[in-house]
Amino acid sequence: MNVALAMLAAVALDAMLGEPRRAHPLVAFGRYAAWIERRWHRDRRAAGVFAWMLAVAPLVLAVAGVSHLVGRWPWASSILAALVLYLAIGHRSLAEHARAVEIALRADDLDAARAAVGRMVSRDTGALDTSQVAAAATESVLENGSDAVFGALFWFALLGAPGAVLYRLANTLDAMWGYRTPRLLRFGWAAARIDDVLNIVPARLTALTYALLGHARTALHCWRTQAPQWDSPNAGPVMAAGAGALRVRLGGAAPYHGVWEARPLLGEGEAPDADSISAALRLVRRGVWLWLAVAFIAIVPGGLHA
Length: 306
Description:
The protein is mainly alpha-helical.
């Protein structure tokens, strides 16, 4: 019962407050991780494993220790858990970034839309046309729905506050160290692989959520036929199922560092536009309410029976 209530409280806090504007713990963690990289970087996988453990283990253990200490007071334990999960999810922030792109597209302000989507994706947005900007934003909503929302909810439901912290820190390190650049190819290998492992189950549950709440037959077909072609083993199912659920065409070539890179096509149907962004946001939002409903159905009866 406390787990489901903490999940609901965290989602409510995120909806009301959004991410902290000042002193977000993840910002401090980012600085800490950057210092670790500068101090311990070696062009070896073992160095990356050591750096990952040095960055993540102390914080996860600290949260686990505090959770254990307050466990004798259920109300305090629930408050702590809800606050930790609130800091681990970014549903409102994702929506705010995506809506900025949507509003600019509806105003036919392509430059503003490019600038807004540039805060969501790593591709070169200056070369994108209107449909490509809409596609980039829609893809980001679908993928980050898994990374910034559902993944944290899953690991919180499984392992409580330490699980949410473990997942969010691992996801952050993947975003910092998981690139296949000459400097990070070996050092960042552990960050990328650990994030992949932690997302195996939640990514597929997210894909299933998108399918259930959208055009299910199309979503499942795209998941089965298109996801294996995507480089990422977890982003593939999420984005293919999401594109199919929305019946929109995503994927395709995108510019990175001045070069247009070929990417598989995702989904089917209409070309993306501002409506695709708002539809993707609704899909994620309905998915959050579905997960909360499942949490209460799965957890509350056991608590009442006890």
